[in-house]
Design a protein that fits this description.
The chain is mostly beta strands and 247 residues long. The protein has one domain: Porin (Beta Barrel). Helices cover 7% and strands 61% of the residues. The chain has a twelve-stranded antiparallel beta barrel. The longest helix has 17 residues. The chain is globular.
Length: 247
């Protein structure tokens, strides 16, 4: 398993370094909800129902393009509240940072690579994994039907590399497919994600629908309900609402 993990990460790094860059500003990553080429602040709130109670996450995310704007930095700061049968508590979750690289983009399709790292910063053991986790990923995006329909497919590998020895390791592979349809100032999208946890030896899948609207030239809002399925699912159902600020 360790050899497969190293091969997977090495391949992603190899393709990211050696891919040829085509500069094209009008690409799939300029579609509603995906603004890789402008500074973006995203604030969202997500409620999840679980068998042991509920979790509510309020998260601040900042996206910052650099260089030729083929590179993009990302920072995540979550504030989590847990409501269980025994107690209610609130605290900071695992803080994350990431970098994306888009080596090839044109008007109808694009490739991208991303690596995220989440630190073991949670103020409570229920608010984080107890581990440092790295998440390399690869994306392919393409417009369909005269740029009204956008397809994004991705594969991501999540693996822990440090942290508390008393907590379980993290080893999850996630494969997602998203379809986004835009019309006027609005969009609707659906996402189907398969996640296999090799530590728990089970699936932690989920699916969501999202409804969004551009309310001003630089502000967008969205809401999406989701449901989880699989023999090792982490929640039952959830709902997320967010605000994107472009500047």
């Amino acid at each position: 398993m360790k050899k497969l993990q190293l091969i997977f990460i090495s391949l992603l790094l190899h393709f990211a370094i050696n891919a040829q860059e085509t500069i094209e500003s009008n690409s799939p990553y300029t579609a509603p909800r995906y603004h890789y080429f402008v500074n973006t602040v995203l604030v969202f709130n997500e409620y999840l129902d679980t068998d042991n109670g509920s979790f509510n996450t309020t998260q601040l995310r900042v996206l910052y393009p650099i260089g030729s704007k083929a590179w993009n930095l990302r920072f995540d700061l979550p504030l989590i509240s847990a409501n269980t049968n025994s107690e209610n508590k609130t605290g900071i979750g695992d803080v994350g940072a990431g970098i994306s690289y888009i080596p090839y983009r044109e008007k109808n399709k694009a490739f991208a690579f991303r690596t995220r790292v989440y630190a073991n910063t949670a103020s409570d053991s229920n608010f984080g994994s107890g581990k440092w986790v790295i998440m390399p990923a690869a994306f392919f995006s393409s417009y369909l039907k005269n740029k009204k329909l956008l397809w994004i497919t991705s594969i991501e590998y999540q693996i822990s590399f440090a942290g508390s020895s008393e907590r379980s390791d993290v080893s999850i592979i996630a494969y997602e497919n998203l379809l986004l349809y835009s019309f006027g100032k609005n969009w609707i999208s659906g996402d189907f994600a398969f996640r296999y946890n090799s530590i728990l030896k089970g699936f932690q899948n989920n699916v969501f629908l999202e409804f969004g609207r551009k309310i001003t030239a630089t502000n967008l809002i969205y809401i999406h309900p989701s449901t989880a399925f699989g023999n090792k699912k982490t929640y039952n159902y959830g709902i997320e609402a967010g605000l994107l600020i472009l500047f």
